[in-house]
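Thread: Modeling a multi-component assembly for a lab meeting

Hi all, long-time lurker, first post. My supervisor asked me to bring a structural picture of a complex we are working on to next week's group meeting, and I have zero experience with this. I have the sequence lines for every component (226 residues in total). Could someone generate the structure of the whole assembly? Inputs are pasted exactly as I received them:
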Amino acid sequence: MNKILKIYKLLYDEYKPQGWWPILMSNESEEYATLYHPNDFSYPKNRDQRFEISIGAILTQNTAWKNVEKALINLKKQDLLNCKGILRVNEEKLKELIRPSGYYNQKAERLKIFADWFSKLRKIPQRNELLSLKGIGPETADSILLYAFKIPSFVVDAYTKRTFYALGLIKKDSKYEEVKHLFEQNLPKDFKLYQEYHALLVEHAKRFYLKNKNSKEDFLKTKIHH
DNA sequence: AACCAGGACGTGA
DNA sequence: TCACGTCATGGT
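Re: Modeling a multi-component assembly
Sure thing. I ran the full set together rather than chain by chain. Output:
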């Protein structure tokens, strides 16, 4: 078994399935929260849910999910968490609603641009189409493809790089596409596996590779060799 | 009370 | 191509 797949199995055995992507739900008392759904890999119910996941991917750029959740709830309460809603609301109002997620000036503009593109979307998007939109870089594009459209496109984030650099599997200055290829060339092309692997790496890195606070020794270091 | 979070873009060399 | 500054709120 190759090392990349072995690491996945070690992570999967260590942590519970993570159930990304978190979706906005309301409980009995009509309070909203984003919830994870372990072992649920069903295709997004409808167009609105694919849109919600995409918007979340944009809003979470360099931002803690808790802050994104606040923004999503603000939009939902105004019935604006859908393509038409984002197109309808005026940009200043949009800025106000997504303010908790940070960078709200640029993110508001980018949500508008994305909603405009999404409204004309009639087929599965290509990666290059997404990358051509202002505000969507490689990680956001891959997140949208993988979680909103269930296309096996591996997501590489800062946590992934930190962990794999610590394990000696990539260089510190490895490019996004290099790391992406490393995973995709060593894994079966399975969107469920890609989703779970990415989420598990985030969970692992939060425990062992928080910036400037890597106190504990990564258990993977000893186990990946035998 | 600094430091950082599930990045991306514009600029200058 | 690429290093660097910028964008911004909220949690620890």
